[in-house]
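Retro notes (design track)

What went well: tokenization of the new backbones is finally stable.
What didn't: we kept losing track of which sequence belonged to which structure.
Fix going forward: every design gets posted as structure first, then sequence, in one message. First example under the new rule, 482 residues:
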């Protein structure tokens, strides 16, 4: 049974000995770095969940690939129930960690590649599907973390890949050899990349004839020579490096975003799952995006749970929990959060079997789900800021709280409802600040807008999937219009 514990996962990542450029320095021993360690703890949670007596059923699934129980974060969905359990698991992880736990992108990429390679083989006589099955069986047996890498830098957005001043602005095949390909380029915004064992690179858009070099899908180990990492900044991220942990906001967990550069990286053919089949690049992009838009119906809802809980708690600490307008605002937060979750569950429950055998979400509802995610978390954050009060932006530091001169003044003048310790009130306010304006806002707000595609991408898909012509035909039939 391939089910690592969190400690086993952390050990396996440390053994990769990855290095990254972080704030102007090349850094090794990443598990000990203050910016990286919280994000690794968040990933470790997804492993421990499979061993939790209460939550384990959400995290475990029987895989037909290896005929064994695997972590659901490596599972190929075999039913609509699998899709529903995925969303439930993601909400659970988001609630418990109050951050991005970084393991969803690889899962979504795998399911998209599985079905696309099957159909590509049927048309072109290629052998990608069996290659991918062998590869993913190995991933499941090792309980590995895989980062799906889709987003290219894109350069001049008004130009196609072959028209860019630098052809590497879209990741491409630079050279073909007898035993594999050499790829060159970069992938941006890579969530959890330095916490992953493997990378699945995919094309970022529908390629056209003449753009075969950019229609590449392949697996690369994160410690492969030529792969370089540049760590992304988060708002208030250096608080994680400070002595006083109270100011961090989220004291245990965190997220991670990385620019990943592929500098003439060799990939053997057994790890290549698309190489120039431009006619299937669009299907791969569309399927991955839909799976990932479904994911946001779970993970962002879980973080929303944490924000709602913190907001209700600070209202109680401030002595205003009984005010009608406070109750109404919290109910509105719950309503918005559950609306997102409803869409995530709906697109899962209406999932359909693909020719390859795994299940695909309902594309229309998955895109409705993600379009809601581009808006509702921002309203939750606004309401949380409203209820929490101005201290979110003016609260003294933990160092001042512990200062023999300033500390007593802070404890005197930041007292609120009877029986509430000032330090506890500070903890809750710092968590809210983390989610609405600090490091946690990257995963909760910015990612909600741009992760899995910005709002326009969802609107395009909704227009395609809505069957507007069919709706008009029904009205004509009802009204007897020719």
């Amino acid at each position: 049974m391939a089910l690592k514990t969190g400690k086993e996962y952390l050990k396996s990542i440390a053994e990769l000995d990855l290095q990254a450029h972080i704030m102007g320095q090349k850094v090794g021993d990443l598990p000990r770095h203050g910016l990286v360690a919280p994000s690794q703890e968040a990933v470790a949670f997804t492993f421990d969940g499979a061993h939790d007596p209460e939550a384990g059923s959400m995290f475990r699934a029987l895989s037909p690939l290896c005929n064994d129980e695997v972590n659901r974060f490596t599972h190929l969905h075999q039913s609509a129930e699998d899709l529903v359990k995925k969303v439930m698991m993601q909400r659970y992880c988001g609630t418990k960690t109050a951050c991005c736990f970084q393991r969803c992108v690889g899962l979504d990429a795998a399911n998209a590649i599985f079905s696309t390679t099957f159909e590509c083989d049927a048309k072109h006589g290629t052998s990608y599907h069996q290659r991918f099955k062998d590869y993913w069986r190995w991933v499941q047996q090792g309980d590995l973390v895989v980062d799906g890498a889709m987003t290219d830098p894109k350069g001049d957005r008004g130009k196609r890949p072959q028209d860019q001043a630098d052809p590497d602005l879209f990741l491409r095949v630079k050279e073909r050899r007898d035993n594999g390909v050499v790829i060159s380029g970069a992938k941006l915004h890579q969530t959890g990349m330095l916490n992953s064992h493997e990378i699945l690179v995919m094309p970022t858009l529908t390629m056209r004839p003449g753009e075969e070099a950019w229609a590449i899908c392949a697996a690369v180990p994160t410690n492969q020579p030529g792969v370089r990492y540049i760590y992304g900044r988060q708002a208030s991220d250096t608080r994680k490096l400070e002595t006083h942990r109270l100011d961090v906001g989220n004291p245990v967990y965190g997220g991670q975003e990385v620019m990943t550069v592929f500098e003439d990286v060799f990939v053997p053919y057994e790890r290549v799952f698309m190489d120039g089949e431009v006619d299937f690049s669009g299907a791969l992009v569309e399927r991955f995006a839909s799976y990932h838009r479904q994911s946001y119906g779970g993970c962002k809802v879980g973080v929303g749970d944490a924000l709602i809980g913190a907001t209700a708690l600070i209202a109680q600490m401030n002595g205003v929990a009984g005010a009608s307008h406070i109750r109404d605002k919290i109910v509105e937060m719950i309503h918005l959060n559950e609306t997102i979750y409803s869409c995530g569950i709906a697109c899962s429950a209406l999932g359909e079997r693909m020719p390859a055998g795994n299940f695909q979400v309902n594309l229309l509802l998955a895109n409705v789900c993600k379009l809601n995610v581009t808006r509702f978390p921002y309203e939750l954050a606004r309401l949380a800021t409203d209820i929490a009060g101005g201290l979110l932006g003016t609260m003294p530091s933990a160092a001042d709280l512990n200062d023999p001169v300033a500390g007593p003044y802070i404890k005197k003048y930041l007292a609120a409802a009877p029986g509430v310790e000032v330090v506890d009130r500070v903890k809750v306010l710092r968590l809210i600040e983390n989610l609405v304006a600090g490091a946690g806002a990257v995963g909760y707000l910015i990612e909600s807008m741009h992760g899995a595609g910005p709002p326009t991408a969802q609107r395009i898909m909704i227009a395609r999937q809505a069957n507007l012509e069919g709706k008009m035909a029904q009205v004509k039939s009802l009204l007897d219009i020719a």
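Added context from the reviewer: The chain has a mean pLDDT of 97.
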